[in-house]
Specification:
Elements (H helix, E strand, L loop, with lengths): L1 H25 L1 E6 L17 E9 L6 E2 L2 H14 L7 E7 L5 H9 L1 H18 L3 E5 L6 H25 L5 E7 L3 E2 L2 E2 L2 H7 L2 E5 L27 H10 L7 E6 L1 E7 L11 E4 L6 E3 H10 L4 E5 L4 E6 L2 E5 L2 H13 L4 E5 L8 H10 L3 H6 L6
Parallel strand pairs: 1-2, 1-17, 2-4, 4-5, 5-6, 6-9, 9-10, 10-17
Antiparallel strand pairs: 2-3, 7-8, 11-12, 11-13, 11-16, 14-15, 15-16
Helix pairs in contact: 3-4, 4-5, 5-6, 9-10
Length: about 375
């Protein structure tokens, strides 16, 4: 009896580990990288991620083909083999577009069958020739109901082409993903959820940039997880996607590795929603996590606060107030993603983490749960 029980327990532990491994393989612990960040691809600790997005490929306004600039050609061509040196199992995806891309060109491309084909065929060719495992669409954002309809058609045709190419080449089908707005509607328009569900492997929900000192006159979190007073929060966005019909396993929650610095109107009024006179740093106040940690270290007496109600960190010193995500809020967000049954999380962007603190915290929070480990005597794992 004791031997049978021992065998059962060993089998149970092995099965759990196998399940966790499979779940990890099917999960997304992702991050974006781009060469202009000044952070070399060779410096990425790829062991902390399952997927890395290489950004950005361009959309030619005339031919509607996906292209890679001459400045990025060498680094993009070497990207997959570079990041796989430290993690041979990491999957890379070529991201197309980005926040500074011309949305009108994307709209034009999606509106015609011939231009959609140019986009699709060229994207697949680039992905294969550069060694990427997938393609990521970052169209920010569709502006009309026709755009949304055409987006749905584009995704359907893209999936069909990817499937056909895989069958003819004998290779695994390319992954297809998209970075979309944090919620299921943007500019008063609903995303084509049925097409997204059917044709994309998952959606990266960009749950950040809610508020910024360039356009909002009060201090606030630009990436809060909860907000009972408005519909501007990561949890609201995820719920809106799920309520619209997108499967939870089709969603990855976006986490920013950067924050925004506000200039306080009054140094003595330094809480949330304190009046601000504008950005307290260049680039609209944007500061990478490394910059924020350096600011805290170099300004004696800086007060650091974690607000667990909305899930955000902020700090202040003199008239500078910075809202950002630190390890506490990252842990809470990743735990939320797990509890909601999401596919995973992703971060923008890898080049501004500080000694891999946020990336490591996210990976650990996504890992084997504390209670499950204790139950099976795996607390040392």
């Amino acid at each position: 009896m004791a031997s049978s029980m021992k065998i059962f327990l060993i089998f149970s532990v092995v099965s759990l580990v196998e399940l966790q491994f499979c779940a990890g393989q099917n999960a997304v612990n992702g991050v974006y990288w781009f060469p202009d960040s000044g952070f070399a691809a060779s410096d990425i600790n790829s062991a902390l991620f399952t997927h890395i997005f290489c950004a950005f490929a361009d959309l030619d306004p005339q031919t509607k083909q996906v292209t890679i600039s001459s400045a990025n050609n060498a680094s993009f061509y070497q990207f997959t083999r570079t990041v796989q040196l430290n993690n041979p199992s990491v999957k890379t995806l070529l991201s197309i577009g980005g926040g500074s891309a011309n949305k009108t060109v994307f709209s034009q491309m999606a509106s015609q069958s011939s231009s959609r084909k140019s986009f699709i065929d060229s994207s697949i060719k680039l992905a294969r020739s550069y060694g990427f495992y997938g393609l990521d669409l970052d169209w920010e954002y569709p502006q009309t109901s026709s755009d949304m309809t055409n987006l749905g058609t584009l995704l359907t045709e893209w999936r069909t082409a990817v499937t056909t190419e895989a069958q003819s080449s004998g290779k695994s089908a390319l992954l297809l993903t998209a970075a979309f707005y944090y919620a299921a509607n943007v500019n008063g328009l609903n995303y084509p959820v049925n097409s997204i569900n059917t044709n994309l492997d998952w959606v990266n929900a960009m749950a950040y940039d809610f508020y910024g000192p360039s356009w909002y006159g009060y201090t606030n979190s630009h990436s809060m997880l909860y907000d009972s007073t408005s519909q501007v929060s990561g949890s609201y966005g995820i719920d809106s996607w799920i309520q619209a019909g997108l499967g939870a396993k089709k969603l990855a929650l976006g986490i920013p590795f950067y924050g925004y610095a506000w200039r306080l109107a009054n140094a003595n009024n330094h809480g949330m929603l304190a009046p601000s006179t504008g950005p307290a740093a260049p680039d609209g106040g944007a500061m990478g996590y490394t910059q924020i940690k350096n600011f805290i270290a170099s300004n004696t007496g800086t007060v650091v606060i974690y607000n667990s109600t909305i899930v955000t960190n902020y700090c202040y010193s003199g008239t500078t107030w910075i809202g950002y995500d630190d390890t506490q809020s990252v842990a809470a967000k990743v735990s939320y993603a797990k509890q909601k049954g999401l596919l995973g999380y992703f971060a923008w962007h890898v080049g501004v983490d500080s000694n891999w603190a946020l990336s490591t915290q996210a990976k650990q929070s996504w890992g084997l749960g504390e209670h499950e480990a204790a139950y099976y005597g795996l607390s040392e794992f």
